[in-house]
Amino acid sequence: MVGAVEKYLLDRINSEGSIHMTLIDPEKVTSLQASAIAQKASASGTSAIMIGGSTFVSVKHLDAVVKNVKRVVKIPVILFPNNVTSISRYADAIWFMSLINSVDPYFLMGAQVLGAPLVKRYGLEPIPLGYIIVGEGGTAGIVGKAVPIPYDKPELAVAHALAGQYLGMRFIYLEAGSGAKKPVPQEMIRAVRHCIDVPLIVGGGIKSRAQALAAASAGADIIVTGNVVENGQVKDKVSEIVDGIRSGKS
Length: 250
Ligand code: 1GP
Fold this sequence. Notes:
This protein is an alpha/beta fold. The chain contains 9 helices and 8 strands. Strands 1-2-3-4-5-6-7-8 form an 8-stranded parallel beta barrel, surrounded by 8 helices. The longest helix is centred in the middle third of the chain and has 18 residues. SN-glycerol-1-phosphate (1GP) binds next to strand 8.
């Protein structure tokens, strides 16, 4: 059941403690820009490339972005879908995710039912993921009709994360929303990490070494950054964040 990409992620978490992933939003880049970002991020120590955004993008453009990224990096390319239109046959794997705190059945199980046959047909590796929107929640929270979990309610984040794990999801993602003013607080990361047995992903609003270090030392196994690489200086920024993650674990 555990495929090659998932095994790779687990192995890297085991050997490094915490790892970094770079998120590329296909809505914001050309396919050439995407491959340039991926190449620099990979050279700077990121462990995988995630591709996805919160709103609409054409499958044609998504395919071009994924293909171009695949051409230049050896690390896995994992889709981070917001809908059934976010599935590209050229990726290695897909976070097969349910938005646990959505009030809309479409984001809990509807889109997954529509997307599953395509995942099968394209031979993509599905990695089961429980997605939980916290804090401001950003565009993902609005589009996904989530009831975001307030930062001062870590026990609610724990309840959602445990429910995801007990349903068989093999990763849990605490999402503050892309560009969030405040990343997920350490107290919430700590509380969730303490209660679940599967790897914990944290993302949204992480822009600095100190913020990456804070998330890693609180127990995040995977730290995702997106916005920070969109304004150039990919090498410097990813190196800075990867360095923060590594020192957070030492
Ligand atoms: C968003 O968690 C990711 O889905 C990354 O957020 O763009 O703020 O880094 P940023």
